[in-house]
Request: fold
Amino acid sequence: MYIDHGDAPAFRRVMDHFTILRDGVSRNRGALVKTIGDAIMAVFSDPAHAVEAAIDILRNIETYNAQNPDAQIVLKMGIHQGACNRRDAQRTPGLLRFGGQPGGPPGRAEPGW
Reply:
């Protein structure tokens, strides 16, 4: 993407994508836990809020794509229901790691540039 569009436009597109994701999570009673490259991990107290956030995010991605036909964002999302465990990183004081139960990854949203 950076080669095809140039550094500044590609970086703007990545920042736009994070804004859409972050706003969709917060509007639907969620909290952003962390970013993972160009993906995010978010938590919700109710699975219905996660579904509402996903729909909200997809609608806003659709609007963004209509306004930016040469800079389309393709998004892949998944929702995991279950406990999210906090695990302190062993060798880095102050660093927190989060993970879901075996059997499925935590909820995620990642672009398909």
